[in-house]
Amino acid sequence: MKASRLLGFSAFLLAVFVLVPLFIGATGRWDFFYTLTSVALLSVGAAGVWLTFYIGRINIGQGAYALVGGYVSAILVTQGGVSFWLTLPVAGLFCAVISILIGLPILRLRGVYFAMVTLVLTEVARLSALALPITNGAKGITSIPLPGELSVFGLTIIPAFGSLSNPRIGFYMMAVVLMIVTYLVLWRIVNSRLGHLCRSLQQNEELSASIGVNTAYLRVLAYAISSFFGGIAGAMFASIAQSIYPSSFVVADSVNFMLYCFLGGLGYVFGPMLGTFLLYFGWDLLSIAREYQLLIYSGVMILLMLVLPNGVLSLLDKKEGGK
Amino acid sequence: MTPILQIKNITKRYGGLTAVNDVSFDVRAGEILSVIGPNGAGKSTLFKLISSFVPATSGEVLFNGERISSLAPHKVARMGVVRTFQETTIFRSMTVRENIIVSHHLRSKASLLGFFLGTKQAKEDEAAFAASADDIVDFLGLQGIRNELASNLPQGHLRALGMAIGLATDPKVILLDEPFAGMNHDETMKMVGLVRRLRDERGVTVLLVEHDMPAVMKISDRIVCINFGQKIAEGTPKEIRENEKVIEAYLGSEDAAIGM
């Protein structure tokens, strides 16, 4: 079992770091780099949403944290002259701290009530970005410089993106590394006691409290980790687009983050990653259907939810005769 | 010796309704004490008050002399006062074994971060939990269903699982909410034996709320009877059986109900 897992992981690394760039190089479809970079970053945000699902909360507010993370990074880089690589974790931490303040009161809510409040959060974030002086209103922040080089003790780990002949590959690599680290962290959370306790919370909060779990603390902790992922995803997006606007992440994006989780499967750590890939690519591919794009897309979504309520990954389970 | 639990003048009002009115009694370490009373007497509310799942309007609960009635439920559990639930509350999509293992949370020595990083302490903890879970499975006779999903279990096994979850927390006092409800005679007798062993072999003090009079009379060292939220009697099963007020409370079906 362990060996097969390692094999799968190696195959995945080989595919994303070698085969995909080779394939794109051979076909000349350089735009795929941008698409795949987006998939990787969106799946980082979706990983966070998935974790809130894992404690039994429907989170439709990840767009808010992506937006905040993007602004934090953009402001620090453009106005503070801080290295992008430093702003990345700072953006995540900033979002985590905000989410603790927001989460303390709202995580008491359950079900549709929590979902509604998180839905509003995205709109609050957008309006704040419009109103605050530091975010430069509707004009947003533009001409964000590309990430500089990252070096430790004089050793260059990542070269300056501006010096690369093709920064698109750089961004792709960076986004994929971020995605892999995120999902390793998520996988580890789920398979450690922390994840077991999250599951206990999801299934029965009262019983969870009665076995001594500090349910309020655990909820806030999971939500903070979730928002951290949202924040770093947003920061990377702002850096790639070299700009951020109040409308960079809107309610529709928050809803999409949730859909990625649904489609991939709420019971599977790698569900949101697969879900993001399928939905984002599927949407792109459906552009050949022109005006029917949205119709087909929504139709397929509804069908999938009816046929596979536990997500695409539940297909694997059925083959193996259940978990 | 101070009693392990002291319930002092506890009162709970919901709006104009007084569910529990100025109830006081002690629970001694190592005894099996039952709280009885007709439907709607306030037994379940009293239970929630003792485990601190609802705040008391007035009065207090002391555990080994320490006030626990205003603490969060998880803190009360941490001190060693653990409740099971009436409505067969379990972690539905976990297996029996997973249910029991996760409930060992209070015994963890490693921090959550330690578990995340997989430190030596965390691994030791997990191994100890697994061993203890198997121990509890054996104790309750759940060997045949240890890897069964909890949502697939029949009623009787669910009740035992609820008790297993409670046991996993290593309680000093366990509060059992109607452990015999919905059971036939044989199942009840089995459960009576189990609760006894809980006390005899594991040294757990048992406080239980129950309807089933024959079982209560059989199992209890002492009984507290409440009616309309007030304590009307306290004593040994024999004393309770002969108590005028108790008989009156159960009037109409007294003979059958009190098991005389």
Automatic annotation (TrEMBL), chain A:
Record carries keyword Cell division: no
Keywords: Cell membrane, Membrane, Transmembrane, Transmembrane helix
Compartments reported by the entry: Cell membrane
Native organism: Shinella fusca
Membrane topology: Multi-pass membrane protein
Xref: CDD domains: TM_PBP1_LivM_like
A Pfam family assignment: BPD_transp_2
Keyword field contains NAD: no
Highest taxon above the source species: Bacteria
Listed name of the protein: Branched-chain amino acid transport system permease protein
Residue ranges of the TM segments: 7-26, 32-53, 60-78, 84-104, 111-132, 169-190, 220-245, 257-283, 295-316
MF terms in GO: branched-chain amino acid transmembrane transporter activity
Gene Ontology CC terms, in alphabetical order: plasma membrane
From TrEMBL, chain B:
Organism: Shinella fusca
Signal peptide: none
CDD domains (alphabetical): ABC_Mj1267_LivG_branched
Record GO terms (molecular function): ATP binding; ATP hydrolysis activity
Lineage: Bacteria, Pseudomonadati, Pseudomonadota, Alphaproteobacteria, Hyphomicrobiales
Domain ABC transporter: 5-253
Gene Ontology CC annotation, any one: plasma membrane
SUPFAM superfamilies: P-loop containing nucleoside triphosphate hydrolases
Source domain of life: Bacteria
InterPro entries: AAA+_ATPase, ABC_AA/LPS_Transport, ABC_transporter-like_ATP-bd, BCA_ABC_TP_C, P-loop_NTPase
Keywords assigned by UniProt, alphabetized: ATP-binding, Nucleotide-binding, Transport
Family matches, as PROSITE patterns: ABC_TRANSPORTER_2
Pfam families: ABC_tran (PF00005), BCA_ABC_TP_C (PF12399)
Name assigned to this protein: Branched-chain amino acid transport system ATP-binding protein
